[in-house]
Amino acid sequence: MSKVEHQDATVLSDDELRTLDAHWRAANYLAAAQIYLMANPLLTEPLRPEHIKPRLLGHWGTSPGLNLVHTHLNRVIKARGLDALCVWGPGHGGPSVLANSWLEGSYSETYPDVTRDVAGMERLFRQFSFPGGVPSHVAPETPGSIHEGGELGYSLAHAYGAAFDNPGLLVACVIGDGEAETGPLATAWHSNKFLDPVQDGAVLPILHLNGYKIANPTVLARVPEAELDALLRGYGHEPIHVTGDDPAQVHRAMAAALDDALDRIALAQRTAREDGGTRRVHWPMIVLRTPKGWTGPAEVDGEPVAGTWRAHQVPLPGVRENPAHLRQLEEWLRSYRPEELFDQDGRPVADVLACVPDGSRRLGATAHANGGLLVRDLPIADLDGFAVPVEKPGTTLHEPTRVLGDLLEQIMRDTRSRRDFRLVGPDETASNRLQAVYGASGKAWQAERLPVDEHLDRHGRVLEILSEHTCQGWLEGYLLTGRHGLFSCYEAFVHIVDSMVNQHIKWLRTARRLPWRAPVASLNYLLTSHVWRQDHNGFSHQDPGFVDHVLNKSPEVVRVYLPPDANTLLSVADHVLRSRDYVNVVVAGKQPCFDWLSMDQARAHCARGAGIWDWAGTENGGEPDVVLACAGDVPTQEILAAAQLLRRHLPRLAVRVVNVVDMTRLLPREEHPHGMTDFEYDGLFTADKPVIFAYHGYPWLVHRLAYRRAGHRHLHVRGYKEAGTTTTPFDMVVRNDLDRYRLVMDVIDRVPGLAVRAAALRQLMADARTRHHAWIRAHGTDLPEVADWSWNA
Amino acid sequence: MSKVEHQDATVLSDDELRTLDAHWRAANYLAAAQIYLMANPLLTEPLRPEHIKPRLLGHWGTSPGLNLVHTHLNRVIKARGLDALCVWGPGHGGPSVLANSWLEGSYSETYPDVTRDVAGMERLFRQFSFPGGVPSHVAPETPGSIHEGGELGYSLAHAYGAAFDNPGLLVACVIGDGEAETGPLATAWHSNKFLDPVQDGAVLPILHLNGYKIANPTVLARVPEAELDALLRGYGHEPIHVTGDDPAQVHRAMAAALDDALDRIALAQRTAREDGGTRRVHWPMIVLRTPKGWTGPAEVDGEPVAGTWRAHQVPLPGVRENPAHLRQLEEWLRSYRPEELFDQDGRPVADVLACVPDGSRRLGATAHANGGLLVRDLPIADLDGFAVPVEKPGTTLHEPTRVLGDLLEQIMRDTRSRRDFRLVGPDETASNRLQAVYGASGKAWQAERLPVDEHLDRHGRVLEILSEHTCQGWLEGYLLTGRHGLFSCYEAFVHIVDSMVNQHIKWLRTARRLPWRAPVASLNYLLTSHVWRQDHNGFSHQDPGFVDHVLNKSPEVVRVYLPPDANTLLSVADHVLRSRDYVNVVVAGKQPCFDWLSMDQARAHCARGAGIWDWAGTENGGEPDVVLACAGDVPTQEILAAAQLLRRHLPRLAVRVVNVVDMTRLLPREEHPHGMTDFEYDGLFTADKPVIFAYHGYPWLVHRLAYRRAGHRHLHVRGYKEAGTTTTPFDMVVRNDLDRYRLVMDVIDRVPGLAVRAAALRQLMADARTRHHAWIRAHGTDLPEVADWSWNA
Predict the structure, then answer these.
(1) Does domain A610-787 have CATH number 3.30.470.20?
(2) B649 CA to chain A: closest CA distance, Å?
(3) Based on C-alpha coordinates, what's the Rg of chain A?
(4) Interface touch A545/B536, C-beta < 8 Å
(5) Contact A54 B227 (CB under 8 A)
(6) Nearest CA-CA partner of B361 in B701, B686, B78
């Protein structure tokens, strides 16, 4: 490890080198001490077992490298007056980022009880990975962070999300060589083909090769440097390599590399902004190769530690019990010469702080990492201008997502100068019928264009890449830095980001409890091309389970909406786009769907989240005999068709039709802020009458939400039960027993005391299902009576 | 598109060129016709609307490229006598792969009603994307396939999985340029650092750049060729480029490229096998750049189609209604000159079949794509040799996964010559305490090695890469080609592969219904480092929801086990490793855990899946007053601690302790093959007594499984409710109300008619919780009474 490039381009003065090294040593000291100490923070007395925490938790290995990056970012931010944000990819770098925030003062400003003195230093150490304290990873609790370092792989996509539409911002992104092996990270490199040098900020990837993961070498550290260089050039970058293990040499090389990279970025942006950005930029990046656990114990118990995977977590595990380890820890900590770095009161000396920028330029104090401070209300036009007219329910058809597309186009138009709204999707915007937005903004694209292309736009705000991971990561980064957006996705394939949304929900839940974090715009999903209308793509494209996944998570954060038609979709979209700090899942169809509610009715219905559709039922005051409930566009249509059959054939049966838009309404009030009281629930569903519930997804979800209700034992739910294939739309519902005929049979089977007429109707329904099976085999299409059905009550 | 490389290396004779082109044209004809025709398959009469299917579904765009690859693979397989398999990444390439299978005869052998004549051709066309027919994607129904082309991104990992431990096999893998944008695919390229040229087969990636996705250009097709070349070299490959749109030129270039690639592969393998494989191989690959929808309509309604995204699906959509489209379709189909390709009976002529290999060398007939034909029972040693001795329950501690590690080592040892077992994991094998396996096999690694490394092995069968996607993809490919394996993963992060396991479950569910597909070994997960013992890593590492996700899917396929100790884990592991065609999820701890059952008891308990632990309860014949139920290691410990408290303080309360290992036992018999009858369920849990159920994961899962039971209204479940943080193990259960004290309080709150003594005990319990809170704040450790607890009844 002796090769060093770029050491000559920038010449650090001895003074600069000394102060940078002082800052780095201070950060290293603080990072190591957080893992071990709960007392004697300045080592003013010899280290004794009682100074050591009872449980030693944390990750040393990555910390010195992160500290180096932080130190050098400080230098260039200050020297160049940059507006910068850093995304710290190496997951467990908590000790480092906390150390740096404390050094620069942003930590004490955020948490006034952790003062920048010896008392605060002791608190900083003690709270780390301590019950009730702070996590060992970079997390919402960490000032200056928009990226949780727990589950790996998303740093680079987050960085690009932060840079979009932030032309003045530099987003540095440290990528660990472990994280670099993940799929989401591996494809996020291609984000550079979507970054506009004119309207967006810059991303500076810093690939940190410390060579090891928990227990293995990393792939990228073990291929020849020329091969790695080719890979990164193939990703579209111009890599600058910094390699070494001698601190002074590496300081010089890193300073030179950063200056070089920032000069290139500045030139690229200036050129593009002068000429309008007509050429793709090959952005610089840095490859930083330093030893894992650098400056830590070289050997422990005869085994090499620094520079190996053994430095990953706690290099000296037995400190409290093993005097030799304790002595070694003390030597290690004293090797940073804390007495030179902190004054008697524990305050960092001037040399240590020489590189630190001021105020909001500090990485721990930038408002971009607390996006709620920057977010503005989205301009959303009056929905009446987009609503479809509904004179009579169930007689006209619209494609709900296409109607929504017009609203999104208007939002795109109204944010043209603000540039704080993005639509993301995996190559499905048009497939999902949202292409109207192209009228206001094209698709971001910096790579080659051909005459045959349509809607590609160097400055576009529609983002399409065939990677749900990248879409999700971009949007998260964009939202957490104070902007707005919508992710449209095929319903089945949104499971690809299950784990990512999980982490985002955890982030929001934690952030909501931190008074200093201001609310950010919600993460909004539009799931379409859904299970019931993937009849042509078949079984692999059919999965409504994302709702189940999300509803397992923190109820403060999650919301699920299933608007049954175009106007309710508009109302729901309006609501979710205005909301803050939620993850909203909206499931809606793109195929022609009956219009049930006028815009005013839709607004009122969505505000309630669930309600009786009087016009569809046959109640005459009093309690109904049966409740037909539905959630989702296709189930709603089938329930109404069933209601129509019942009205025609059993006119004296008192049927109530209930439509549910907001699934969390079904939960008890104590379990979710939107939950109904039992009084409300019984008022809608009754406490003792049969409820036939046609639900969009897995039927047991409704049971899981409603199992505490008095009427639960009378609840019978139909939904998707993995009976999928390539077939017709109506055959999909028949195969899953969600069809109108089966629903009528369910009513007859469950309402007590029905007369002979009901038995005849039941037979009629069974016959209709038989007829369906025969017809579809012969014709490959749906029964004409189904294909031509409309509401006619 | 005129650049062609490698056209000179291999000189195809005119005769070869003519027959290859005939095969290609035949496949193109059959692919296009599947999308459109339901009659008049040979175009023996002019095309009329009634020959056209009522719904036009399918994907033309990728088909001609896939047909080209198939044709040329046929040639080299035949010429070189190769044992080959092809993974068809471009998802919607169904028409192509079906066409080729029909041509070579494997389709008719698999589906005898689809004969290789005009009647069979008509069936082939009609069934495609038709209700009750076959999917439009490559799917389990497709002969020769191990890869569902629905959700994109997994082809390359599947290909490597198939190649591992198959030294005689060539696995070609066609990667679409859309798919190439996904994260899983982007990192799967690095699989080449894990492929052993000695013990494994070869993978030949064929990156097919047809330039467009559904509605957008692809990234890789729009970067300069030199940049793409650098990327692929950076991935460790030697790319061979084939580019063109003139069929004859491309035939020549493709033949040359394939010969070149296969020569290089043969040389690399021969060299490695002679010298023992001491150097890393830079494997060749092919970049094939041909137009999307090549040979299809150039223009439709004045818009360019061939060579654009408009060719993605159905290039001529209005054929039934629009006479001009119908005419254009007829011209298109006749352009392949079907009359030269098929005889009067619809049989392919000799020229068409000239390139097709024989018997099981045909891509549609290889046994490697029907792995159940090849799979052998795994040798699993007698568990008694690995069991921990249990004289008395709850007095000794073992780390369950470490005990399992010994068994896995033995399996590794016993498969040393067969090489049909692999352990995969994202850099967590040692972290998950399974490192004993290294005694029998090191970790596969072909990249650079340093002296400090441990257990890296060019021929190892433990696979570790920091990509859950790659782990999952490798294992799927390995299993579907007839081998065995286990995926060990942190519980929280297995959500990363939610969508992949989804697709694998769908694959198995479909495959199980196909009589010609023989059962393969199950996909087994060992989820450890679980929610209750991620106290140190904190909230981001806590998520038990994978079980919920999996239990939504086809019950024929999914199984979930929560063994409570080391011996039960052994028993469960033995069972799942012997099983076929399932996805088994096993959740078990790696931290020291009480041993409850001897090996014999464990076997009996696991065979039942759920049972009463007599020794832990206080029943005296008769019905219990309360049932304490548990599933999972930590909940089991808390339930037993609660049982001990009740026994001590309320000795006359009749407590029954029930432990559940197999979660699907809770389901009704009609819903899952393992489900209990109501009689069985009531026998365990009673129909009317309070049940306090301590469950490992989200509590509502138990309700979702048991809501139909008579006793459901008396069921009270405790589990993880997202109250996570960085803390101690016991604090985790306290925060989620799963602790022993809370469980005792739950009993007291729910058993009617308890005396004053119970009220006093309740207060004692509440006090203990208060004491816990104070202690942990002061000491950062758990209460001594909890830390030192053991079963002492």
Answers:
(1) no
(2) 31
(3) 30
(4) no
(5) no
(6) B78
Q: Which CATH number fits domain B609-787: 3.30.230.10, 3.40.50.920, 2.60.120.10, 3.30.70.3040?
A: 3.40.50.920
A511 HSE (CA, 13 A, CB side): 30
* DSSP SS3 for A203: strand
Residues 717-756 of chain A whose Cβ lies under 8 A from any Cβ of chain B: 722, 724-728, 731
Select from B118, B26, B39, B35 the least CA-distant residue to B325. Answer: B35
Query: What's the gap in Å between the CA of B340 and the closest CA on chain A?
Result: 31
Q: Which of B223, B431, B536 sits opposite A57 (nearest CB)?
A: B536
Residues of B with CB below 8 A from A233's CB?
Answer: 227, 230-231, 234
The CATH number of B14-358, from 3.40.190.150, 3.30.70.2190, 3.40.50.970, 3.40.50.300, is: 3.40.50.970
Supply angle C-alpha B63, B64, B69, rounded to 5: 95
Domain boundaries, chain A: 14-366, 383-594, 610-787
| A249 touches B: beta carbon within 8 Å | no
- Distance from the Cα of B223 to chain A's closest Cα (Å) equals 6
How is residue B96 written in tokens? 């192509």
Q: What tokens does B28 get?
A: 């193109």
Residues of B with CB below 8 A from A776's CB?
131-132
For B484, what's the count of Cα atoms within 13 Å in the CB-facing half-sphere?
22
Nearest-angstrom CA–CA distance, B305 and B179: 21
Query: Does the distance separating the beta carbons of A130 and B540 come in below 8 Å?
Result: no
pLDDT bucket at B460, cuts 50 / 70 / 90: very high
pLDDT for A624-634, tens place per residue?
A: 999 999 999 99
As to burial, measured by CB atoms within 10 angstroms (0-12 exposed, 13-18 middle, 19+ buried), residue A271 is: middle
Res A8: pLDDT: 52
3-state secondary structure (DSSP) of residue B583: strand
Contact A726 B780 (CB under 8 A): no
Average pLDDT over residues A328-350: 98
Maximum distance among all Cα pairs of chain B, rounded to whole angstroms: 100
- Across-strand partners of B209? B289
Q: What are phi and psi of A288, to 5 degrees?
A: -110, 115
| Predicted local distance difference test score (pLDDT) of residue B8 | 52
The reply to whether B14-358 and B383-594 are identical in fold is yes
Query: pTM of this prediction?
Result: 0.97
B-chain residues near A429 (CB < 8 A): 215
Q: Which residues of A touch B133 (CB under 8 A)?
A: 726
Could A183 and B178 be called an inter-chain contact, meaning their C-beta atoms sit closer than 8 Å?
A: no
3-class DSSP state of A521? strand
Give the gap in angstroms from C-alpha B686 to the nearest C-alpha of chain A. Answer: 18
Residue A586's pLDDT band (cuts 50, 70, 90): very high
Instruction: Output the CA–CA distances (angstroms, integers) from residue A462 to A431, A440, A501, A519, A743, in the order listed.
Output: 14, 10, 21, 24, 42
**Residue A1 reports pLDDT greater than 60:** no
Among A460-464, A685-689, B277-281, B420-424, name the one with the lowest average pLDDT: B277-281
Query: What ipTM does this complex have?
Result: 0.97
Listed residue (B265, B241, B253) closest to B170, CA to CA: B265
Q: Which of A131, A153, A230 sits opposite B780 (nearest CB)?
A: A131
What residues in A contact B151, CB-CB < 8 Å?
A: 492-493, 496, 540-541
Amino acid type, B62:
T
Considering CB atoms only, which of A231, A427, A449 is closest to B213? A427
Q: Taking CB atoms and an 8 Å cut-off, how many pairs form between chains A and B?
A: 362
Q: How far is B726 from chain A (nearest CA, A)?
A: 6
- B383-594 is classed CATH 3.30.390.10: no
- What number is the average pLDDT over the span B254-274? 97
